[in-house]
Amino acid sequence: MSAFISFPDDFIWGAATSSYQIEGAWNEDGKGESIWDRYTHTPGNIIDGSTGDVACDHYHRWPQDVAMMKALGLQAYRFSIAWPRILPDGRGRVNPAGLDFYSRLVDGLLEANIKPVVTLYHWDLPQALQDTGGWPERSTAEAFAEYADVVSRRLGDRVKTWITHNEMWCASVLSYELGEHAPGWRDTAAAVRAAHHLLLSHGLAVPILRANSPDSEVGVTLNFEIMEPASASDADRQATRTIDGTYNRWFVSALYGRHYPADIVAHYEPHLPNGWDFVQPGDFDVIAAPIDFLGVNYYTRRIVRDEAAPDNLPQTHFPDLPKCDMHTGVWEPVYWEIYPDGLYQLLNRLHFEYQPGKIYVTENGTSFADGPDGSGHVPDARRRLYLRDHLSACRRAMDNGVPLAGYFAWSLMDNFEWAKGYQQRFGIVWVDYDTQQRTPKESALWYRDAIAHHGFALD
Ligand code: FCB
């Protein structure tokens, strides 16, 4: 008999999406333009030239999507709100139709007995705010606080789990320094400023959410990767430490009251012509507002090589891990390794170093293009095993005392994967983009059974 991996009865089993990736209806019912609308409408930015104009058409099909979630037995649904649906100009004028849409969705979820978990910012900044400088400007953080106020006044009676931001590294470094995401800048100083203002905006929003949404829990979601030096050379180890700092430590350190890590402050300094003038007295106290949980997004491990180092050692032999279809870098892909033990290591590390009161895995999943087999089934054994092995890693971390309270599969359904367009399929539900038909994949059916049994057999 195979081992059964069981989870506590109150462990939350969910799935996640984000507004721009699924909603479509990019200019309907008074919605303003977002930086992702502008970015995808500009030729050359997206690998297959696609846009989120229609995406999964969730804006019109949400009732069926909620019914599908219910059929899968999901207990929670993490989705994000499109800021420009609520405030088309970023600040000021509120669009009631935008608020109504999310209010209906929340009611629909609650009727289906699914807990709404709301992310306020999953990257679709109103273009109007980018036009006044975007996240590198402090005014954008103030605008975010106003937006959080408008949304939580309307939904705060029914939404009891709030996530201010999704993956601040992506919203700053990937967007303003590496140029891979909207608005596509390549400016390190702008990225560091953006990172600071994202953190600040989070801290400004926390007390607002608490005031407008009594008895709710408030947190933030960050992305983490396991970083390993490609060899034991000093150069590779230093490169690993630096990227671990910019990627893994920068945000969590500030959020948990430790300012920015000194080594990374020194690393960024030469790139900041005006120094740290954008950091104002008191900012770090605002940023470190106590939160109820840390949202953790985990996908893969990264092997770090300092390509420029003259004295580098030959690369260490790492056992060959399977890889998925997703890659880092748009034009020169490094495929993502499947490394479940990394999630175990990561959860332990975060628990040990920062002691979050509670953790949710707010995203975890994999991209394989497996499609329908002709008989109405979508066999995706590799994704089923990915979920099984990562959930097992979660369970092992919980056995070590990590306060993990829930898991959200990324993603509920195939969707618009940012710069990689529709070629990447992360869904546990297959989407036929011609007909918009949804078909739960084998992994979704496995997940449904795991939810029903509070666990699964390891066979
Ligand atoms: C994360 C994003 C999510 C999706 C997955 C694959 O970085 O939060 O929107 O793109 O990666």
Automatic annotation (TrEMBL):
One of its GO terms (biological process) is cellulose catabolic process. InterPro entries: GH (IPR017853), GH_1_N_CS (IPR033132), Glyco_hydro_1 (IPR001360), Glyco_hydro_1_beta-glucosidase (IPR017736). It catalyses: Hydrolysis of terminal, non-reducing beta-D-glucosyl residues with release of beta-D-glucose. Its EC number is 3.2.1.21. Keywords: Carbohydrate metabolism, Cellulose degradation, Glycosidase, Hydrolase, Polysaccharide degradation. Coiled coil: none annotated. The active site is at E167, E363. The keyword Hydrolase applies. The keyword Hydrolase applies. Substrate binds at Q21, H122, N166, Y299, W410, E417, W418. It comes from the Bacteria. GO terms for cellular component: cytosol. Pfam families: Glyco_hydro_1 (PF00232). SUPFAM superfamilies: (Trans)glycosidases. One of its GO terms (molecular function) is beta-glucosidase activity. Belongs to the glycosyl hydrolase 1 family. NCBIfam families: BGL. PANTHER family: GLYCOSYL HYDROLASE, LP05116P. This is Beta-glucosidase. The gene is bglA.
